[in-house]
Description:
single chain, mainly alpha, 3-stranded antiparallel β-sheet, 8 helices, about 10% strand, globular
Amino acid sequence: MKATSLSFGKKVAVMLLASSSFVASAATSGFKMVLIEDTPGVSKIKAGLYQDGVAEATAATDKHADAFSKHMSLCVAYTHMAQFKQAEQACSSAIYAARRAEGSDTSYKREMRSFAHTNRGVARLMGQDPVAALADFQQATTLEQSEINQHNLALLNEKMKAVSPVYTASTLNVAD
Length: 176
């Protein structure tokens, strides 16, 4: 796990995932998910205490965390807990919250949505839906050309090509 600061002004933590039969690979080449630092539950999620992180994030009031950040935390925690439907719902809620963020400029909202799409893509991939994951990774990259988004899209393309060289992002032409 590493932390980095991105242009939208919030600190994010990047978590690596490499735990799925579809993405079985070396531990050094996992998919990345984004958490928003200084959000209730994040420190517990980063420590692997996912249920405690979910409880803390869920209990947080609007004074302590915005809806986008809370849903991002829930998405990551549920993904690690292999509760993929809940993870997908939390990521979708983060996408919606990013679209509705008040007082935010357009580029900020695009970046927020891109990270929610990349997280949802990882959740969908871990839930064994690589086509939906591909659509999310492509949408994330369209919204924001970040290292995280490009990494996840390239890695999925690599995994898909290894399984079947016919099916890649360019041949499926998936749009969200």
